[in-house]
Every structure is written in structure tokens, then in C-alpha cells.
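Annotated sample (chain length 250).
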Amino acid sequence: MVDLKNKVVMVTGGGRGIGRAFCLGFSANGSRVVVADIDLMNASNTVNEIKRSGGHAIAMQVDVTNFDEVQNMATRILEIFGSVDVLVNNAALVGDLELKPWDQISPEEWDRVLRVNVTGMFYCARAVVPHMIKKGKGKIINIASDLFLKGGKGRLHYITSKAAVVGFTRALARELGDYNINVNAVAPGLTYTGYLKVPKEWFDVVREQRCLKRNEYPEDLVGTVLFLASEASDFITGQTIVVNGGDVLY
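Output written by the structure step:
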């Protein structure tokens, strides 16, 4: 039922970690993948990996906080592929954030995290939704975090932004339902990507709290995202699916 052959899928933050896993998963299912990332080298590395496996992908450098850049990227994608069937709003600041008490977060850092993690999703949706409306369908998948349910110390800006993603998803689903566009969110748990700046002990603690007692990896999220991008989920919208091995039960 998960038929994504020849679908054009745009993944922001697709150059590494969870975004890279999404790109590889879509390619393995026959999609044409746009790997969008602020780091062109990371995006190109993902594209080369896809091409070595016989897939079709292109790399695009974009700052999702720049409205004009995002609009120009969408225009280029339509010129190349003629369509954007799926948008995966994955780009976010998390791995490079230092843990710090909430009152030590500078106004500049607070604004930067909210602009990338929330405003970037808004800009990307603004860029591709007009085409989806003309086509009469589309899928938007926003990546949240299970921290919107459990809270946590040291990342108030990040957790606030991911709670906003859930609200953004619900409200946008209401806005776009009349156009047959599905908007859903996926909320990962603590995921081992190799570049998160968190104490190693966090993984040990979370692993023991889960029903499934192992670390979570980017590949654990791919199946859910593929499902939400496919016709198998056509009657699901405005929802947040938590994928965390049974840490927080939602």
C-alpha cells in the first residue's frame, strides 16, 4: 500500500541524521528526492549515496529562514520535476545546541531556534502549497519531538519550538483540508544521530524508560514517514504520531 514510485519528495535538513534517513527511505521506494539543506556538502553526500544505489535525487542549498530562498527553491524544483508531491519539514536546530538553563538562553539564540524550527516550516509550506492546491492533493509531514509531551531541562527554546510544530500541524490541517492536502507530524524520541550535544547518560536513562529497551535510530522513523506520505494514509490529517519505542505513551 505504500506506493511512492516517482513521487517528488522535498526533505529539508536532508543532509545528515534523521533527514538523511528519510531521503534514503524515499529513494529506496522509488521516489525522486530533493535533498534540501543549508550545508550543500552534506546534501551532496546524501545525493551521491542515493545515486550509488540507483536512485534519483538532487541537492539544493537553502536557508529555510529566508523566504525568498525557499520560494526560489520551490520554483526550481517545479522547473526540474514539474511537481512537489510531498514536503517533509525536517530542518531544525537541535544537535548543535548547547544545554543551558532557560535564563541563560540569549534573545538571539531563542529567536534563531524559533525561526529555523517553526518559521522555516511556514515558509516551506507557503512555497509548495499553491502547487499542491492546483494538483488537488499533497502531503506535508512536520517533524516534532516527544519532548512537547514530557518537557525537559536545558532546551527551553527547542522544546517550545517543537510544541509549536504540533499546533502548526493541527491548524494547517484545518486550513488545507478543503484542498485534499494532508498535514501530519511525527514526534521522535531521543534519537541517536551521533552529533547530539547531550550527556551519554541520557540515552541510558531513556532506553530503560522505554517499553522497547534499545536506542532509537533515524531508521526507526522512516516507516512512519513513508506511510504518511503514501495513499495508505489519505484519511489521516492533523495528527501527531509519536515514535519513541514506548517512552512517553500518547
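Annotation: The radius of gyration is 17 Å.
Annotation: The longest strand covers residues 181-188.
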